[in-house]
Each structure stands twice: as C-alpha cells, then as structure tokens.
Inverse folding.
C-alpha cells in the first residue's frame, strides 16, 4: 500500500483547468520531488492534497484511506503534514516554545489556553528531542526572529513534524535560503525518519537531483513524466520543456 496516492485528480476554475487528471503515487518512506516550470500547478496540487482546495474530480488516498472529502485538519490527524512557501512563524517564541505548542493537542492540552506551558513536561521533552534531531541543539532557546533564515525554514518542518505525520509535503523548503544553509536544510530533510514519506517542491535542480530518489515533472497541470534522477536528467522532453534545452542537445 502506498503512503499517498492520487487518481485522476483535477482542479478547474471555470473554463481553466489547472490540474489535469494527475495520477501520483508516493511510496512509504519516499523522498520524492515534484518539479516543473512556474505556473505548472505544483502548489495547487499540494493545496488539493492537504484540503486547502477541493478537487473538481478524482480522488486522494492516504495509506489506502480516501481523504479528498475530509477537512484539512482531519487530514492532519490522519498523518498528513505540510509546510508553505512563505514562513508562518511566531517571531517572539523560541523554537522550543513553538514546537511544544504544536505538540500540546496530542498531549491533551487542546482547549486549555491558560494552562502553563512549563507544566507540559512530556510535550517539552518530545519537542526538545525533535529539535535536537534536526540539529537545533544550542539554538532551541533562541527567539525565532533571531534565527538565520535557513533555521527558520527548518523550524517550519519541525512544526509540521510535531503532529507525527507519516507523509509530509514541503512547498519549496529551500526558497530564499542561502546556498550553504539550503544544503544543510536538505540534509536534515534527508535524515527524517525512514517511515516518513516526503514530497517536496523545489526549483534548485542541484538539490533535487542530489536528494530525490524519484522525481515527477509537472507541466501545465499534468504529469509529463516521472522516474529516477538519472532517468529524468536523460529525458529529452524534460530538457526541452523544463530545462529549456533542445531534445538532442
């Protein structure tokens, strides 16, 4: 059984068809990249998977369970997490405070807004362990606004992991991150637990070909092709449509 699967997924806005019969399969523990030119419909596809948008047709399955009619928050409880292109963090909180807050619903503190955070010892311990695994170490008590941008992007991933997802969708995790920090960020993603499947959108082809085990190419809302990095690099259609090279060049 796949971790995440779509069948004939479509999204239409009036006469404009943005997503065209997408069949996508994400294996358990996958490291799968979704690439394509600007306007290809990559973020729309992520929004469909996570429930931000409703499909016009087709179906979505998470570990074999159909989820395309579920609300976004219900998909999270089923094990689907995501990050966004633009940071949505609380700048005054430390990384440890932010991740602890994200974990409190699983620890039974949902609906208790004035419950002292210091009393959530189990959530604090779990948050600290998660942050240590992502390389925060000495910076987990630093205010978010003081962290380098690459660390802030990684904190978003930590927040997505707080719900213990089995599938995580990363929308351009390295966008705007300096090259050195981007490499560290992707290395941290590579080290995520082996049972967590990752689908990431990325424009930096060096990062894609270095870290993806499988790549799907989306063009004009449809899957053009998919395969290993070696297969995608050798595909003349990809070179022509996405990389801008001639088919024989």
């Amino acid at each position: 059984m796949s971790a995440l699967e779509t069948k004939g997924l479509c999204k239409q806005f009036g006469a404009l068809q943005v997503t065209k019969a997408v069949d996508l399969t994400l294996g358990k523990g996958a490291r799968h990249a979704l690439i394509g030119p600007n306007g290809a419909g990559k973020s729309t596809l992520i929004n469909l998977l996570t429930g931000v948008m409703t499909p016009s047709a087709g179906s979505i399955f998470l570990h074999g369970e159909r989820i395309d009619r579920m609300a976004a928050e219900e998909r999270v409880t089923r094990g689907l997490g995501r990050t966004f292109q633009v940071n949505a963090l609380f700048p005054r909180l430390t990384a440890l405070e932010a991740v602890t807050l994200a974990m409190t619903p699983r620890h039974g503190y949902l609906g208790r807004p004035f419950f002292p955070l210091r009393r959530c010892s189990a959530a604090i311990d779990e948050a600290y362990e998660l942050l240590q695994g992502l390389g925060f170490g000495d910076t987990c008590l630093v205010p978010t606004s003081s962290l380098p941008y690459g660390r802030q992007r990684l904190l978003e991933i930590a927040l997505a992991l707080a719900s213990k997802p089995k599938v995580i969708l990363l929308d351009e995790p390295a966008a705007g991150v300096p090259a050195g920090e981007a490499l560290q960020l992707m290395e941290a993603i590579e080290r995520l637990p082996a049972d967590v499947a990752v689908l990431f959108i990325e424009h930096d082809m060096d990062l894609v070909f270095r870290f993806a085990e499988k790549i799907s190419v989306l063009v004009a809302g449809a899957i053009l092709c998919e395969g290993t990095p070696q297969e995608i690099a050798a595909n003349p259609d990809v070179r022509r449509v996405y990389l801008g090279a001639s088919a024989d060049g």
In short: Strands lie at 4-13, 16-26, 31-35, 57-62, 65-66, 80-82, 167-171, 197-201, 214-219, 222-227. Residues 158 and 227 are 29 Å apart (CA to CA). The mean pLDDT is 88.
